[in-house]
Amino acid sequence: MKIKKAVVPVAGLGTRFLPATKAIPKEMLTIVDRPTIQYIVEEIVASGIKEIVLVTASGKSAIENHFDYSFELETFLGQKGKWDLLREVRHISSLIEVVSVRQKEPLGLGHAVKVTESVVGNEPFVVVLGDDMVDAEVPCVFQMLRVFEKFQESVVAVQKVSPEETHNYGIVEGEEVADRVYKVSRLIEKPAPGTTRSNLAIIGRYVLRPEIYGCLARTLPGVGGEIQLTDALDSLRRERELYAYAFVGKRYDAGDKFGYLQATVNFALEHPELGGRFKEYLKRLVSEFKD
Ligand code: G1P
User: Fold this and answer.
1) pTM of full prediction above 0.90
2) Which residues surround ligand 1 with Cβ inside 6 Å?
3) Are 107 and 91 in contact (CB under 8 A)?
């Protein structure tokens, strides 16, 4: 079954980045020269998926505009002969089709996924969270699609975290059944310390079978009074098998100020034009710290 659609929830208020996010969506904050949402969309496209379903809220139109055709800008760049910039501006929007669905109330991640049911329909799909940026040679979504192809069951991306951090994540318990692949026996959203021995934390990448929608419909508000995707997945694993996959790559929590800075440094070092200069600059900076 070929997966064609990726759901990207972008309705969150971005309060952790206020005042930067007072008038612009957090997904439009820039890392080096692209908004964070573009890295996410590029990962999805590089994994072979072209249909993006954005779950939006009011104040998020800048994201839709970013991936849209901009007549004024493109005409201007064309008239000025700025072909490289024109190509850059057109590139990503020419590769994807974007559909937006409104999440009318902030009722949680599970609810954000639920509102996409009429657009996604009865087929498996991918969910990618914009706060989790993954730098990997093989795109993280692509790695997950390979696991889905093999098992034909839903897959969540996981990463090992320290026991002190488990309460910040959805945690998966399970047994390793293949290299990096776990068969899930239980999921707990933001477990209280000491309530699980597992340290496999869900990172914002999911491949979901459409049966998740039925589970979401039955899911009551959980942690924080929100409808949690993790809780719906815990009902799904009672009905069918569910797998967790420890992806290969480096993950940055771009929804957190420190993680955002780490992502900026990482992607600046990898930038084809700036990387070399930036590395030299950092080396100098580090040597000054030593004095
Ligand atoms: C969400 C999910 C959580 C997951 C996390 C990954 O939580 O509910 O299960 O571990 O994303 O970033 P949030 O960070 O939105 O509180």
Assistant:
1) yes
2) 109, 129, 131-132, 169-170, 189, 201-204, 228-230
3) no
